[in-house]
Write a structure and sequence with these properties.
With about 425 residues, this protein is α/β, with parallel strands linked by helices. About 25% of the residues lie in helices and about 25% in strands.
């Protein structure tokens, strides 16, 4: 029988019935996303296929066979109002990937339009415009990529977008989220979303993540956020502030967590409702501002017991402009490293100290080592994440060549990266 991506079908095989939405499929096969969120693939000549509805609409009426709540987009359409305009900027990553059956590996081959075709519910939420910025896996992102992406985001907002979604690989998503947070003061939501498992793999999280991201993109949360699964089930997504989020697991669907902060909120997948937990900047509260410029010659160095202070000599002598040290506990390194910290700051190179513990706040005033580090010019990074501190350093040094001004900016909370008190 004839079917296409987005159609809802019933498949019968060996007395068992499966229902779901048609996903991208190889010739001679059909892959569906079932209501459970898992994918299942079948050879078309070994099953009975019944078409239930086209493009996600069931012939019995409504989304998912008339079951479940209507989306925000459906309510808007019924009221006769225009849907909000949302731009999808694709950079690649697993959410925009599929299996290359030649090699068996996942490759970035989907565009923004492919994502819309694979997840037709998105069109019920907003009027989308797709644009490909890059098609790379996220380990290939760099400071130039962040700046190009930021310019594209600003262009879409200036063109009238009510929200912007950036699809991105999960491995370096937190770096990009931080970069956009520092470069753009936004009057509308900027949402970064990805997926831990590609569209044609079992239990892909791409559809739910994308739908939840779209709902945040039309909300009043006018910040850079990351929207990903909140648990391993298909129940809700968490909305993480772009400067407080970290990937905490290699493969789980709920890999992303807010560190030293609660999430901004959650998106209930069944009801499509957003519940917020902390204060956030609301839509239209501030005008659009764009401050590009990133200094790539900055480094994040992890201290380990017994490591040689000559490691810092490499960066100082190679012309690097700033360092983030990932120290132990409250933010300590060996006393042997302290003269090198002094050497760096004497050379007008900011040195920020963070903790490998992640949770908690730096305090270099408790022990003698920490006090000596501060005397050498080290900057306490407070409760900022090490990755965020690196991106902040790169951005600050892209804004000013004045050492004292850079130090002043690095000590300030610029985009929610430093909280008044660590979350307990």
């Amino acid at each position: 029988m004839e079917f296409k991506q987005g159609d809802r079908v019933r498949i019968e095989k060996n007395g068992t019935v499966y229902e779901g939405k048609v996903m991208p499929s190889m010739e001679g096969y059909i892959t569906i996303k079932m209501n459970s969120g898992y994918n299942a693939g079948f050879s078309t000549d070994k099953v009975k296929i019944t078409l239930l509805g086209n493009n996600g609409e069931n012939k019995n009426g409504g989304r998912n066979g008339g079951k479940g709540p209507k989306t925000a987009g459906e309510e808007v359409q019924k009221s006769g109002k225009k849907l909000p305009k949302v731009a999808i900027l694709s950079t690649g990553g697993t959410i925009a990937s599929k299996i290359d059956y030649r090699t068996g590996a996942v490759t970035s081959q989907f565009t923004a339009d492919d994502i819309l075709a694979a997840i037709p519910e998105l069109r019920e939420i907003a009027d989308f415009k797709g644009r490909v910025i890059s098609s790379i896996l996220s380990e290939n992102m760099d400071s130039e990529s962040w700046q190009n992406l930021a310019r594209a985001v600003v262009e879409e907002i200036e063109a009238g977008a009510d929200g912007v979604i950036v699809t991105h690989g999960t491995d370096t998503m937190m770096y990009t989220a931080a970069a956009l947070s520092f470069m753009i003061e936004t009057p509308v939501p900027i949402v970064i979303v990805g997926s831990q498992r590609s569209a044609d793999r079992p239990s892909s999280d791409n559809a739910m993540n994308a739908i939840c991201a779209a709902l945040v993109a039309i909300s009043d949360i006018a910040e850079v956020s990351v929207v990903m699964h909140g648990t391993t089930s298909d129940d809700f997504c968490e909305i993480h502030r772009g400067t407080k989020v970290r990937k905490m697991h290699t493969s789980r669907r709920d890999a992303f967590k807010s560190i030293n902060s609660r999430p901004i909120g959650i998106v209930d997948y069944d009801t499509r409702e957003i519940k917020t937990f902390i204060d956030y900047i609301k839509r239209g509260e501030r005008p659009l501002k764009f401050k590009s410029g990133m200094e790539p010659k900055c480094a994040l160095v992890k201290f380990t017991p017994g490591s040689s202070p000559e490691i810092l000599d490499h960066y100082i002598d190679s012309g690097y402009r700033g360092l983030v040290l990932e120290g132990t506990g409250l933010g300590h390194v060996s006393t042997k490293w302290i003269p090198r910290i002094q050497k760096a700051t004497d050379a007008k190179m900011p040195v920020i100290v963070m903790s490998q513990c992640l949770n908690g706040r730096i305090c270099d005033r408790v022990y003698d080592t920490g006090r000596d580090m501060l005397k050498a010019g080290a900057i306490e990074g407070e409760d900022t994440l090490p990755e965020t501190a690196l991106v902040k350093l790169m951005w600050v040094l892209g804004q000013t060549d004045e050492f004292d001004e850079a130090v002043k900016m690095l000590r300030e909370d610029l985009s929610g990266e430093i909280t008044k008190c660590c979350f307990k």
